[in-house]
Structure formats: C-alpha cells, structure tokens
Write a structure and sequence with these properties.
By secondary structure, the protein is of the alpha+beta class. It is built from eight helices and 22 strands. Strands 1, 2, 3, 4, 5, 6, 7 and 9 form an eight-stranded mixed β-sheet that branches. A five-stranded antiparallel β-sheet has the order 11-16-21-18-19, with no helix packed on it.
C-alpha cells in the first residue's frame, strides 16, 4: 500500500452542474471543490494546484474535456486520476456512453463528449496506474428498453491497467443529493476521506475505500457502485486514514526475557543512576566518568551542535527548496511585444506548508486592454508539441478572448472567464519560427485581470 509520486502524477476533475437542456446538478460543484481539496492535501496525494490537479467546471465544448484529459495523460508517468460527475447519455442505436456538457440534449448524444475519446487518451498515458471514477447515471430512464446497461458500460469504459469505479445509476438516483450537498456516491467518498474508517489501516487504498462505500450505499438503500480492477491498481492509497489509531507495540518474548535477565543482574542494594547519567554501562561495570559531571558538559555541547545544525539546514533549505528551478517555459523564449512576467517553479519546504507553484508566464490585462506577445522556439529541427493551460484570475467577472498562432496558422482560440482554466496541446511542424498569443478583455468590468499560461512549453 503506497502513495504515488506527486511530481509524476496528475488528476483531472470534470463536473457539469449547469445544463441548458437537462436538469441542473448543483451538488456537482461541491463534489469538485471537496475532491480537489482532498487530492491536494498532505493527507492524500499532495498534488500541486493547476499544474497537477486540474478542475474543469461546466465545460461547454468537447475540446475542453478532451484536452484536459489529454494533457494530464501525457504528463503523468506514475498515477493518473480522472473523475467525471454529470449526466450520462446512451446512444440508443449502439449503446455508446457519452458524458454531458452544458449544452447537451437528452436524446442527442452527439451534443455530449463520447467517453471513447477520453478512454483513448487515458489508454495512451505512460502512467503505471490509472483511476477512472464516473459519478453519473447512464440514461436508463430515458431509454428503459436498455435493461441493465451498467455492466455493458463498465466493459466499454474499462481501460487496461486501470481501476474503474462507477456510481451504478440506472436512474437519476445515482446523482441525487445526499443531504449534505454532494451527490450520493461522491458524498460517501468525501466523508470517508474526511472521517476515515475506525479500526482501519493507516493508509486507505482504493480497494478498502470501495468496499466501505459499497457497504454504506447498501445500508442506505442507494444504488450500488460497481468496480473493475486491472493490474493491482486497487492497492494504491488515496488518503491517510483520519481515524487511524496506532496501539502500543506488543513486547516480544525475547524482549521480556532480556528485561528479566537485566533485573536479575542488578543488585537491590545498588542505587539507581540519575536520569540521563552514566551510573552503569550496558555490561554492568561502573563508568569511569562521575555521573554528576557528565550531564552539564555533554548536554550543553550537544545542544549547541543541534542548534547550529538546524540553523544550517534552514539556510540550505531556503536556498534549495525555495529557489527558482530551471527554465519556466522549456522550448520557448520571449521575442517581442508585451513582455510577460516569468513565474519560476517555487517549492516550499515542509515546515512552510510544502507544495510547488507551477512555472509559466503571467500577463496583467487591465479593463478593455489587449496584449500581444511573440515567442520564438529556442530549438528547431524536430516535430514538437505546444501545450499548457491558460487560467484567468481577477477580482471581478472578467472575460478574455484569446488566440494562439504558430507563424500564421491558428493553433488554439477561445474565451475564458475568471477562475476558469483551458488546457490545450497541439503538434507543430519543425519549421515553425514564431508563436504568437493575443488576448483581449471583452467584459465591462473595471478590475485588472491576470492571464496565466501555466506549464507553457514546446516539447519534443
């Protein structure tokens, strides 16, 4: 039982709470907030926000979902965690599973994202372990003739080397409010992560978590979740057990015998040595140094040594753990136009809270302003992938329309709002000479906005 390497792992949490043509699922917003908090905490995978734990809220386009999963799948080499909460739609002609978007319609699965698209991206990942959690109904209420679609769709969703969990929902009940602001299945998962399992192990792996949730759902007469396991992924720990209590270690027979032997060697008439003194050596002979003289000199010396050692560790830690690390945008250099601020990867030591801030660029975009920046590849001659994620932060409801081009060819474009993130990757030919990003504020707010291109880079 073990935790994954946070630097080599990725999580994507996708949730659709707002729908134009389907029932809204307001509890999904709470699902995303709670699960991301768990995965980024020190009691779980300790994933850095944005760079390793991405939340996609209310996606409207297929690209928003597929690009997020593709980015994480390519970046992960240890563990990959993909979570979806929303409506599940079934194509009545072939039974294919689709996952709803904001603009999806119940009897038009082509308005949703086909799960097969995500499955392909997950399958292509180098990650040793892949966890897929689908907290959605399968649309059996819309197509009652489908019978029991759960088993079929689990087979369809399965990816070799994964641990697949599905909140088995033939009805909407799978997404019902659990009374505490979550969907039924995710609510049980969040409570388990926060409260733990009494008499459970120190680390809660996927198998243990699933068995506990399954029992809780049965006891509450709720839909029973299903699982599929491949390649022992169930031994991967998700969270440290908050209810774990370590009992006193049991004394071994040899230790008891040794204690009795030592007691027999000691003479009742001999005085006990003072705490911390050298009254007797381990073999029972008297120490050559008086007991009264040793504590003052040796203890003081050790104290000074420990003080200076801790001081040196603190200074070195501040340098090695908090200093900027490497090129924040590998493969790309600033050329001309609006110069962004470079954000180097900054890591804090554990005593300061730990965690790392992802590297990339930042542009300040005041109200009604536009930025234009030209970048140049710092190496050429091979096909490479341009990628990263764009995030907009502002103290108001800001909106930015943006475009990325390679020479004169459009690479990616879209509109992003405050606290939203867009992920993209695109293969570029070896002869690309410049890459340009433009961004324009399109809202009527007066606050300043900050556009981040996190994990920006051009990699082969």
């Amino acid at each position: 039982m073990f935790f994954p390497d946070a630097d080599k792992s990725q999580a994507v949490l996708i949730g659709v709470s707002r729908h134009r043509h389907l029932d809204n699922l307001p509890t999904v917003r709470n699902n995303l907030t709670a699960l991301s908090s768990v995965l980024m905490s020190d009691s779980s995978w300790s994933l850095p926000e944005n760079s390793h734990c991405r939340v996609v809220r209310d996606p409207e386009n297929v690209d928003d979902v597929v690009h997020a999963v593709r980015y994480a799948a390519r970046a992960a080499s240890d563990s990959l965690f993909v979570y979806y909460a929303g409506h599940g739609l079934i194509d009545p002609r072939n039974g294919d599973l689709s996952l709803s978007l904001v603009k999806s319609r119940s009897q038009e699965p082509y308005t949703a994202v086909l799960y097969e698209y995500l499955r392909r991206e997950i399958l292509s990942s180098r990650a040793s372990r892949r966890i897929v959690v689908l907290d959605c109904c399968f649309g059996a209420r819309a197509f009652p003739a489908m019978g029991d679609p759960t088993g079929h769709l689990l087979e369809q969703a399965q990816v070799h080397g994964t641990y697949l969990i599905s909140a088995a929902g033939e009805t909407r009940e799978a997404l019902a409010d659990d009374g505490e602001g979550f969907t039924a299945f995710t609510g049980e998962l969040v409570r388990l992560c926060r409260q733990g399992i009494s008499d459970g192990p120190e680390l809660l792996d996927l198998d243990t978590i699933f068995r506990h949730i399954e029992a809780e759902m049965r006891a509450k007469s709720r839909p029973i979740p299903r699982q599929r396991i491949a390649d022992h992924a169930g031994r991967l720990a998700l969270v440290r057990n908050p209810a774990y209590r370590q009992g006193p270690p049991a004394a071994s027979p040899s230790a008891e015998g040794e204690k009795e032997t030592e007691g027999a060697r000691s003479s009742p008439s001999e005085p006990e040595s003072a705490p911390g003194g050298n009254g007797r050596s381990p073999d029972g002979e008297s120490s050559a140094e008086p007991a009264e003289a040793a504590p003052g000199r040796v203890g003081c010396g050790h104290g000074l040594l420990i003080f200076f050692a801790l001081l040196l560790v603190g200074v070195l830690g501040a340098y090695f753990f908090i200093r900027p690390e490497g090129d924040p945008t590998p493969g790309l250099d600033y050329s001309n136009g609006d110069r962004p601020t470079e954000n180097h990867e900054m890591c804090r030591p554990p005593q300061s809270g730990g965690g790392c801030q992802a590297a990339g660029w930042r542009w300040n975009i005041p109200a009604s302003e536009k930025i234009r920046t030209t970048l140049r590849p710092d190496d050429a001659g091979t096909d490479r992938v341009l990628g990263g994620n764009l995030r907009l932060e502002a103290d108001c409801d800001a909106t930015v329309k943006w475009t990325v081009t390679a020479d004169t060819r459009p690479v990616e474009h879209g509109t992003i709002v405050s606290e939203d993130t867009h992920y993209f990757t695109e293969s570029l030919p070896p002869d690309v000479e410049k890459i340009e990003i433009t961004a324009q504020r399109t809202d009527t707010e007066t606050c300043d906005g900050r556009l981040y291109w996190v994990d920006a880079g051009l990699t082969s």
